[in-house]
Design goal:
single chain, 8 helices, three-stranded antiparallel sheet, alpha+beta
Amino acid sequence: MPFEGLDIVVIAIVVLIILVLFAGIKTVKQGYNYTVERFGRYTRTLQPGLSIIVPFLDRIGVRINMMEQVLDVPTQEVITRDNATVAVDGVTFYQILDAAKAAYEVSGLENAVLNLTMTNIRTVMGSMDLDELLSKRDEINERILRVVDEAVAPWGLKITRIEIKDINPPADLVASMGRQMKAEREKRAQVLEAEGFKQSEILKAEGEKQAVILEAEAQKEAAFREAEAREREAEAEARATQVVSDAIGAGNSQAINYFVAQKYIEALGKIASADNQKIIMMPLEATSLIGSIAGIGEISKDLFGKGSSGDGSGNGGGGSGGSGGSSTPPTRPKPAPKRETKTLPSGFGSINPRED
């Protein structure tokens, strides 16, 4: 059955409707934005999902990738501030934030970002010395990122990271740096060794100083104690002498016998222990010493007498002194005793009795 005119019109209308639907319905993938142009002029941006445009009047302009993208920076030579030539490469991470600006504000977006990054790498690294270049990569990355991000802001871009991958100095410069590093480490080792020796000497000197101080303190303490001992010895000697003197004054002949014999024996001991005496010629014998002590005792008895047997010229010395009587002493005052000097046995001097 041949188509009539009405049927042809209906079919044409259906085909037109299908074409209009295809032309007006657009699907945008996730991670992309589409710009819409009407008669060549930007009108709006399509977000991910299903969108409708005016068929035959609007069209899709530019499909923009909104995901973060990576751009390799090729190797380039950079001359540092100290005239060292190094080969540098890197990598740039960026993301488009405004699809319209990225599409219509700059032509050749990736090429523009690449050239801007390379230029700023040469600028930043050229203002630094080689040592700074090798040791301050974080500072270099931060400075380049700040400059490039500010420059691409009108393009609707955000530079997220810029990293310097490799810095390669020439081979001869690397060898020179190796020698410099070796010399520096040797210098540090020598400095540390010298510091250690210095500290050792200081500690040694401090130890010797403390030892001398302690020795002086010990000598001071020893001298003090020795003087105190001598003082106590002198006090004991004085007390002993006083006791002996009091005993002699009281008529005790044994005290003077002990005192004289002790001094005599001490004198003989000092003579015998002298370093310059090898042979000692002693005219005295032990019996003579004993006889001398006995003689001292007799002299003491004669000098001081006893209460029961005094003679007329002795201690009691009255007008009628007997030879062994027990008469009562007179009440009149006693006359002053007469001083006598008696000769001691051989080896002694003379003893002068004290006046009572």
